[in-house]
Design brief:
The protein is an alpha/beta fold and about 475 residues long. It has 16 helices and eight strands. The protein has an eight-stranded mixed β-sheet, with helices on both faces. α12 packs across α13. The longest helix is centred in the N-terminal third of the chain and has 36 residues.
């Protein structure tokens, strides 16, 4: 099959991938390389100016309009998320995890694994052990460890580590943005497997994950080109922040994404354990090296091309950030990348609508828009409630108060229904969720500031080997063009 988009992906029969031109292929409307466009800047300035004038002339009217606007937006988002989570619960109830049909080793294709390893020297032995546990014939497994040209410590540690056979240590050439998608494009240009999977250095994928993904691809139509494994924190008891992060992941990958896939809506892919048909990924142009959430961006481009992504029954364990100094840059990068992805999609709204269709673009607005709007608004709503409680001059009204209480109740029920083993840490995280929301607002402000000052800067999340003392510092990557 020759993969081609309905509109934006050109046919490529040789299925070769050129790392040097990957960004150029996406630059025509589908990359954040050029940042915020001039028309978008004019719209943003006009809106801010309009709000400022309204705030000076009619502050009460502006506050009322803002409150009811948030009321409407949050109502729509909560309704949409509840429908998707219900669909995810239905999917879990209908489809049980079954033993995978074991195809003889000699009939299996070559599978390529890409691992971007920047400033990860201590984790090389752990990574090698995790990859060695994968159930796939060694002669049909290609492992590419992608190391930045200046990262001598990681290269030295990798060379001293005993990786599985057919593992190659590739140097990412300097000159491009110092981002994970840039490294992935370089590795992808040299990958030769029929299927490709992305893992992070700290990941512990289930040993049978490759076989499950391959079996799902074989039995699925060819328009399904990406499979997302479930991501789950293996350290939810490390701290209150880790418990909140773990609960988010349990909902996102345990219910929300499976429900989204069941509804054929665009998927906000996770940053790891994405499995692809290699030929389709070449046709899509690989990853956007200038987007700091390359996973979310690629999920949207899959939908724009008229193709599909889905989830499947396999789990990868990850480390949840247990400390504020690690959590904040990571969450800020995520929100920043969601804004980048949304801005790219909204450069030409009519074209995006034509490519996605009306239902998919509405789903995209709820997914991406919600991931941006909610953290930006949490602190505003909390301050409004506190001001109303402390001052007799401010009232939020019975309708808005009932709405806020309903939001909390719905979120509490959903959190408690997340598909994960029960524990008192999980219950505490669900009950104290409102204390977590203002932190998301801080991360959102950090994201907006970072987008304005350093649009292509990649804040790297530090990791420590399991059973080791976690590193509380946050090493970062920077873009050569920033």
């Amino acid at each position: 099959m020759v993969y081609k988009s309905k509109h934006s992906v050109q046919e490529r029969g040789d299925f070769s991938f050129d790392f040097e031109t990957a960004g150029a292929r996406l630059e025509a409307g589908q990359s954040f390389r050029l940042g915020i466009t001039a028309p978008q800047k004019r719209v943003i300035i006009s809106l801010l100016t309009g709000f400022g004038i309204c705030g000076l002339l009619q502050p009460a009217l502006l506050c009322a309009a803002f409150a009811w606007g948030l009321f409407t937006a949050f109502g729509a988002l909560i309704t949409w998320r509840t429908l998707l989570i219900s669909a995810g619960m239905l999917r879990r109830a209908r489809f049980s995890v079954r033993p995978v049909h074991r195809i003889p080793d000699e009939e299996l294709p070559v599978y390529s694994i890409l691992v971007a390893a920047y400033d990860e020297a201590p984790l090389m032995p752990q990574l090698a052990a995790a990859l060695a546990r994968l159930d796939w014939p060694p002669d049909r497994l290609e492992i590419l460890i992608l190391i930045e040209a200046h990262d001598g410590l990681t290269r030295t540690a990798a060379e001293a580590t005993r990786f599985p056979v057919r593992t190659r240590l590739l140097t990412v050439p300097p000159g491009g943005p110092l981002t994970k998608p840039n490294a992935l494009n370089h590795g992808f240009a040299q990958a030769r497997g029929d299927y490709v999977v992305i893992y992070d250095v700290e990941d512990l994928p289930a040993p049978d994950q490759l076989r499950r993904a391959h079996a799902a691809f074989v039995s699925a139509p060819e328009d399904l080109i990406c499979l997302q494994a479930r991501l789950q924190a293996d350290n939810p008891k490390a701290s209150w922040l880790a418990a909140q992060w773990a609960l988010e992941y349990d909902l996102q990958f345990g219910l929300l994404l499976p429900g989204t896939a069941l509804c054929r809506a665009p998927l906000l892919l996770g940053g790891t354990s994405n499995h692809f048909r290699r030929k389709a990924l070449i046709a899509l142009g690989g990853w956007d090296a200038y987007n700091v959430t390359e996973d979310a961006d690629l999920g949207m481009r899959i939908a724009r091309a008229g193709l599909r992504a889905d989830t499947f029954a396999s789990t990868t364990l990850e480390d949840a950030p247990a400390h504020w100094r690690v959590w904040l840059p990571q969450r800020g990068r995520w929100i920043k990348g969601y804004i980048q992805t949304w801005l790219v999609l909204m450069r030409t709204p009519s074209r995006t609508l034509q490519e996605m269709g009306s239902l998919r673009i509405l789903a995209m607005q709820c997914a991406l828009g919600g991931a941006i709007l909610a953290p930006l608004s949490h602190a505003v709503l909390i301050l409004l409630v506190l001001a109303a409680a402390l001052s007799s001059y401010i009232s939020i009204g019975a309708a808005l108060l009932s709405f806020l209480i309903s939001c909390y109740a719905i979120r509490l029920i959903v959190d408690l229904a997340a598909p994960v083993a029960w524990s008192w840490q999980r219950a505490l995280a669900a009950i104290t969720k409102p204390l977590y929301w203002p932190l998301l607002s801080i991360a959102a402000v950090h994201a907006v500031w970072d987008l304005a000052k350093r649009p292509h800067f990649w804040a790297k999340t530090p990791h420590s080997p399991r059973n080791a003392e976690p590193d509380q510092t946050c090493s970062t990557g920077s873009s050569a063009s920033a």
